[in-house]
Every structure is written in structure tokens, then in C-alpha cells.
Amino acid sequence: MSRINIADTAEIVIKDKRFVLYLTEEKLQKRVRELGSQITNDYAGKAPVFIGILNGSFMFMADLIKNIGIDCEIDFMRLSSYGDAKISSGNVTMVKDISCDITGRDVIVVEDIVDTGLSVSYIEKLMKQHNTASVKIVSLLLKPDSIKYDVKIDYIGFSIPDKFVVGYGLDYAQKYRNLRSIYVLSENGVL
Ligand code: IMP
Ligand code: MG
Taking residues 49-59, what's their average pLDDT? Predict the structure, then answer.
């Protein structure tokens, strides 16, 4: 196994693919701080429950709640993933449910990336089965050109082109979640 540079590096070669630096650790951290203070202000006087969608959101979730200045709780849910493919399989199942009671609570769902919107639309349906006070969605990344489902994302870190990205929790074949920055797949050397 070769060593990889987990901090900012200009490009990273993964199997036969070349990924180039897209969102630096510094840029990500700055935006996460902004989202944290925005949510802190919007939820003043409330105590929301953050529900992280595993696995991709774990790093964003950790950094986000470090920037939440009000009482809050966290829990996690896991949906079936893409497996090793880069294309969505088109169906979603829940692999792990939350364990806290969200009845009457203000829920903030934390996603890593919204691509087609399938996962978020599935989560919205699940949330409707609970008598929550409110449900909002925060996603670090959104690919507006890929959206196929009618979903509303309340807080967006970055809108990005329809390109495959890895790092900061996001994987390629389950790997490279540990990278501190986000890298984008470079096809034929062109972004
Ligand atoms: P959606 O259900 O099509 O919106 O896809 C959402 C999920 O697909 C995300 O939570 C990710 O796990 C995965 N995904 C979508 N695009 C990417 C990407 O560019 N890199 C890594 N994972 C992705
Ligand atoms: Mg995900």
C-alpha cells in the first residue's frame, strides 16, 4: 500500500483516475464555520437534533457541530451506498436507523453531497413518519445540474459542477474519505 498525502496536495492519482485539488481544507473550514454560525443564529432558543447521514457526512458533521453555539444533540442514520460504482443505483434502503426520539424536535439532516436528490427525498419521507417540530437539510455540497428529485436544501456549503469528487468524508470505492481537502475527477486532463 502506498502512502498518500492527506493534507493539501495538487493532485492525487487513484487507481487509473486523476483527481485534482478543488476545495482546500482552509476553504472548507471557513465555509463550515459560516454555516455553523448561520444555523446557530437561526436556531437561537432551540435545541436541534443533528442527524448525520453515514458514511459520507461524518467529517462535515464533526466540524459543523464544533461551530454550533447552542444546545444540540446528534445521531446518525445510514443509507445504502453506491458500492464501488460512481453512478447511483437508483434505489435507497436504510441500513441503520436513528436511535433517539425526534418527536417534537427540530431536526437538521446533515448530508455530504446532494447529487440526484434521491437520498434526500427518501430521508424526507422517513422524517414525515415522525412528529417532528421541523426538518431542515444541510448539505456540504450540491450538484445543481444533477438534481432529478424535487428536494429543498436549506443550507448549502458549495454548489459544484456535475463532477465526481472525493475527500473530506466522500469516498471513491470506499477510500480517500480521510483526505482533508476535496478533489475533483479530472477527465482527459480537463475539468
Ligand atoms: P443522491 O441520492 O443521488 O443525491 O446521491 C447522494 C449520495 O451519493 C451522497 O450522499 C454520496 O454518498 C454519493 N455521491 C454522490 N455524488 C458523489 C461524488 O461526487 N463523490 C462521492 N460520493 C457521491
Ligand atoms: Mg452520503
Answer: 97
Residue with CA at minimum distance from ligand 1 atom 10: 113
Ligand closest to 167 (CA) is: 1
CB neighbour list of residue 87: distance below 8 Å, 6 or more residues apart: none
Q: Is the CB of 58 under 6 A from ligand 1?
A: no
* 75 has a pLDDT exceeding 90: yes
Give yes or no for residue 160 CB within 6 A of ligand 1.
no
pLDDT at site 12: 86
User: Mean pLDDT, to the nearest integer, of 27-52?
Assistant: 98
The whole-number pLDDT of residue 150 equals 95
For residue 185, report the phi and psi dihedrals to the nearest 5 degrees. Answer: -65, 125
* DSSP-assigned letter for residue 154: S
Q: Which domains does the chain possess? A: 23-177 (3.40.50.2020)
pLDDT digits (tens, 9 = 90+) for 104-154: 999 999 999 999 999 999 999 999 999 999 999 999 999 999 999 999 999
Q: Which of 115, 145, 162, 171 is catalytic?
A: 115
CB atoms within 10 A of CB 15: 8
Q: Is 170 in the pocket of ligand 1 (CB under 6 A)?
A: yes
Angle at 181 between CA 35 and CA 59, to 5 degrees: 55
- Distance between CA atoms of residues 132 and 121, nearest Å: 17
Ion ligand 2, residue ranges at CB < 5 A: 56, 112
CA of 25 to the centre of ligand 1 (A): 20
